[in-house]
Amino acid sequence: MGHSHVPWALAVVGLGYRPRYRIATTVERLRGYAAWCIVCSMTYTAAILGASGYGGAELLKLLANHPEFDVAVVGAESNAGATVGDLFPALAPIYGDRVFVQSSAQAAAGVDVVFLALPHGASQKIVPELIGAVDHIVDFGADFRLPAPSYEQWYGDQHTAPHLIRDFAFGMTELYREDVKQSQHVAVPGCYPTAASYALAPLVADKAIEHTGIVVNAMSGVSGAGRALKITSHFSEVNENASAYGLLTHRHTAEMEMALEHVGGIPTTVLFTPHLVPMTRGILATCTANPARGGLTTGALLDLYRSFYANEPFVTVTNEPSGTRATYGSNSVHITVRFDARTNTVLAIAAIDNMVKGAAGHALQNANILLGLPETMALPVLGVAP
Questions:
Q1: Order of all β-strands in the sheet with 44-49
Q2: Residue 346 confidence class, pLDDT cut points 50, 70, 90
Q3: Mean of pLDDT values over 180-193
Q4: Is the pLDDT of residue 271 over 90?
Q5: In the beta sheet, which residues pair with residue 217?
Q6: Which residues contact 217 (CB under 8 A, 6 or more apart)?
Q7: What Rg do the C-alpha atoms of the chain give, in angstroms?
Q8: Cβ neighbours of residue 326 under 8 Å, at least 6 residues apart?
Q9: What is the per-residue pLDDT for 120?
């Protein structure tokens, strides 16, 4: 597999070079990754539109270590014409001379998977052109996460392609895996909902907490705001400063409530307050809720969490709370839980890397599933330490 097979593949199928050289169809490959590997050593082609942003660059790094992907297209808007190495020196050893092309459906046409790392609102403009032109779409943005009425309520804009929302699974993989397996395209969840929903899901599924009165306070590093220049992300504004924002109206609230209703089967309400803190990466979500029954203990809740996530390689339930550094650079979620008898409150805490599990890693995890590849392929489980 990989680049060493390019000449052989071209000779067999007679294609001009653009690494879209496959013999087996998608259906044939979905019959089983192991069997497919024996039959033919081909790779999948990917396009990343919006690759000059932080999320797109993180995905480029992950795909550099993926044995079954070749990056055929790296797209950008204002950075079109620049090389990857110029914008991201860390990626130069693999992608240094690759040139960003203008992001467009035409540039991505024919690839197996197109990853959209575009600003919110941009995906719905290009997805209608991509449907049928590519096999799979994995969208980092919010455009296809929510039903159209919820999108319009929380984002304040009318959706321009509401008829296509049903074609996308909500890619919160550990909670929506079966939906992803049955879908053609995926909308990757936001970083805050990822941390908060994984922190609360076992409690909601077990009916251990009330479905109203849930409070989520979460802290994020500055990279969550993206690479574009903003006053609020200037060094002098962020350094030595912690600030709350999006009070009562943050758009990610809708995803949290949707995911928790999906798990628990009843409508759930969340009061969510995000905070910007002076670090580059990471999200720490602290969630509190009222117990729905008596007899809860910390030990029993930890056992519940370990059982709920027993088969999830990217979820670690810890006795003591992890900081964001524990998940730095990884696709992992670290979670702990407590019951406070004094205040009769359940407390759950989750830490993630917002650029990996909160964006690019979650995207690749879903792409692996769409293609019938091992879900964990090319995704780091261990954080960078120290």
A1: 101-102, 69-76, 44-49, 113-116, 136-139, 185-187, 168-170
A2: very high
A3: 98
A4: yes
A5: 273, 286
A6: 272, 273, 275, 285, 286, 287
A7: 21
A8: 332, 334, 351, 383, 385
A9: 87
What are the start-end ranges of the E strands in 279-343? 283-289, 315-317, 333-340
Does residue 191 carry a catalytic annotation?
Answer: yes
Q: Which two tokens stand for residue 53?
A: 């942003």
* Residue spans per domain, the chain: 3-188+359-370, 192-355
Q: In this predicted model, what pLDDT tens digit does every residue of 290-304 receive, in sequence order?
A: 999 999 999 999 999
Helix (H, G, I), strand (E, B) or coil at 131: strand
- Residue that has been written with the tokens 């003591």 in this structure: 320
Phi and psi torsions of 350, nearest 5° = -130, 140
DSSP 3-state percent helix, strand, coil across the chain (nearest 5): 40, 20, 40
Q: 3-188+359-370 maps to which CATH number?
A: 3.40.50.720
As a three-state string, the secondary structure of 3-54 is HHHHHHHHHHHCCCCCCCCCCCCHHHHCCCHHHHHHHCCCCEEEEEECCCCH
Token couple for 244: 């709350």
pLDDT tens digit string along 348-380? 999 999 999 999 999 999 999 999 999 999 999
Place of tokens 């120290």: 386
Confidence of residue 60 (pLDDT cuts 50, 70, 90): very high
Q: Which of 37, 40, 191, 287 is catalytic?
A: 191
Tokens 């077990």 correspond to what residue? 206
* pTM across the whole model: 0.89
Alpha-carbon gap, residue 52 to 228, rounded angstroms: 10
Q: Bridge partners of 284?
A: 219, 351
Residues 155, 172, 271, 330: what is their CA dihedral angle, to the nearest 10 degrees?
A: -110
- The angle subtended at Cα 144 by Cα 284 and Cα 265, nearest 5°, is 65
Class of 192-355 in CATH: alpha beta
Residue 103 has pLDDT above 70, yes or no: yes
Q: What single letter denotes the amino acid at residue 245?
A: Y
State yes or no: pLDDT of 34 exceeds 70.
Answer: no
